[in-house]
Amino acid sequence: MDKTIGDVAAAAVADIPDGASVMIGGFGGSGAPIELIHALIDRGPRNLTVINNNAGNGRIGIAAMIDAGMVRKIVCSFPKSKDPRAFTEAYLAGRIELELVPQGTLAERIRAGGAGIPAFYTPTSFGTELAAGKPTAEFDGRGYVQERWLKADYALVKAETADRHGNLVYRKAGRNFGPLMCMAAATTIVQATRIVAPGEIDPEQVVTPGIFVKRLVRVETPQQEEDLNRAEAVYP
């Protein structure tokens, strides 16, 4: 099945509705699908739940989503960044809800969502405020906290190379949360720098199988969050 929809990111995100939960790949700027995020801003759905490692930086990407009033809740590990103005202003004003999740726990909750595991136990956060209200248990003399899976309606992910069937290869650290989010979302939308014919990617190099990808859009010269912030860019 050919999952490509051309070079127009807007078409890829056109059906994301108000109230949707959206996983967005990226570790800071590494692997952040800027073009898909900005296309979603142009469309303007509201009351979104965003799941990402960060809460945005500067005035572009996820930070621009927050500035636009699109995000009701963010689930992340690092709400603070080099320039966290957008999140900080919204949070202090009571316009956005934060669910703070330790990074390893965040990754495992997403992985569990993709693997169909509804809950697991981890020692991380045991005895802290982050564990308040969660079930706990003791295993081999150590306290553990029960964490629930994380799933989403949509995932926005950046890959380096894809074939038309949706098989993905990532660029170095840009891989980060991408493979996990592809598995944990009902609809995965991927921007790829290169889209090739089926069979052109060595099967041994495929990281995300195409079965987890719904749509592909080609972005041949993707923007980098850090470059945009150094230029003091603002979106839109």
TrEMBL record:
SMART domains: CoA_trans (SM00882). SUPFAM superfamilies: NagB/RpiA/CoA transferase-like. Keywords: Transferase. The keyword Transmembrane helix does not apply. It comes from the Bacteria. InterPro entries: 3-oxoacid_CoA-transf_A, CoA_trans_fam_I, CoA_transf_BS, NagB/RpiA_transferase-like. One of its GO terms (molecular function) is CoA-transferase activity. The keyword Zinc does not apply. PANTHER family: ACETATE COA-TRANSFERASE SUBUNIT ALPHA, KETOACID-COENZYME A TRANSFERASE. Belongs to the 3-oxoacid CoA-transferase subunit A family. This is 3-oxoadipate CoA-transferase. It comes from Limimaricola cinnabarinus.
